Structure prediction request, 551 residues.
Amino acid sequence: MSAYRLSRRTALLSGAAAGLGAGLGAGLGALAFVDAPILSPVVATAHGRVQGRVQGDGVHVFKGVRYGAPPTGAGRFKPPQAPAAWASIQPAFAYGAPAMQMATGGSAAPMTELSVAIAGFFSTASDVAIDNEDCLFLNVWTQRTGAQHRRPVMVWLHGGGYAYGSGGWPVYDGANLARRGDVVVVTINHRLNAFGYLYLAELMGGDYAASGNAGMLDIVLALQWVRDNIAAFGGDPGNVTIFGESGGGSKVSHLLAMPQAQGLFHKAIIQSGAGVTGAPADQATDLARDILRELNIAPGDAAALQAAPADAIVAASQTAMGRLPPDRSFRGLSPVVDGGVLPRDPFEPDAPAMSGDIPVMIGSNKDEMSIFNASAPWWGRLSDEQAVAQTRAIGGPNADGLLAALRAQHPDYSPTYLFNAAQSALFFHGPTHTLAERKAAQRRAPVYVYYLMWETPAAGGLFKCPHALDLPLMFDNVEIARALLGDGDAPQRVADQMASAWIAFATTGNPNTAAIPTWPAYDARRRATMVFDAEPRVENDPIRAVREAIT
Prediction:
């Protein structure tokens, strides 16, 4: 069963369970087994009034607030539109539908029980509707509503590449951040995969000129909603930080180069997802043509495209993506350098001038790829010769130098972990430093670089310091992520460091806080880097030999 079908089946089962629970609640309500939820104050937005709930910790939560009209029918693949106004008070109690989801082939763990546990917080929350094209919803966590408060705003862009994911994943719950730092946290859903990034300008005409970046324009619309409405939720529209991990980090990178996003945010955090380049328009057109061919839709037949079932579009995209060569498959359906919405590559050949005054924080995790590779047939079985051969296959002429640097940095790593480290360096660490160097070279706003080195003891230390380990730490959501973080107090100590630094940066544009040593801005001479570990420290160029081998 495909991943997007599985996600729908899971959602339907969750919905059925919720319906059963509601029925039992209605029948047994007089017994009052649980306290009635505390309703938040009614908040007036530009489109109508909404009402959320107040959690036991006092945080006000508004889920599933609509920020855009359904991008369906004639609106499919086109820029989003503002929603129609509503007259009655809309309940904001449940997450809105996630976008249509597409599998990427990634795997989280080789053990079934651990896979299920991890999926519990990197998956769709139980109160989310089935994945749907009608997905333009956002969520808000705040300690107090009302325009008199004016607290820093943190707008989260979810991971999952550009293929899947949701702002409603449990690990993204913003309550702990909102309470710890008195900030307002916003998470959003937006169009993904073909619905957000199918470039049809050359195949369907001018009405589809922006189709290759429709998902990015959804994010712009959400940021406009924040600008126009967040004050009523206690936030400061003049102090907005965008932050994201993996695909979300890449989205942040692209927003820094998008004219329509300028002025809508004031600081940016990029986690394990430096987006240096976008998809070339010619390659994006070739992929779109192949997808249309799978759908038996001729170029120019917009009516057929509007009428095609959403599931069929996802399936056709999955098939066409499977035929891409390895050097293009990593891009897939992603933001397109179309000369309009995205005029240029975000950080190639240099940092975009339009966002030169935006402070940036950026970093990566030591063993990023282990969470993807741990279930591969070769995991734990590579010989030295095989590790060298596989690294040469992806690293080109720099492969031998990279392996030598990695052996020196990690003398205890087996061939499997060395190859995993080579992938991590090529796909994550290298782009992180490239982006940081180019941002620092502008000398207009600071860039702060971090490197997460703390290793999780979960699964006997299998993953070391994998991709996404930062999420429950900087969101301060340790307890729901024990399956990934392990037992003991070490995870919370690292979370205290990271969450505090994220909040400080969102508040002032400087991540320094009493929870960590003094963290200098990054420059090409010193390359000061905050190392998050059981004991945080600042190191100058901590992976110098690796960096020099790949950048």
Residues 29 and 450 are 51 Å apart (CA to CA). Residues 359-550 form a domain with the Rossmann fold fold (CATH 3.40.50.1820). Confidence is low (pLDDT under 50) at residues 1-34, 105-112.
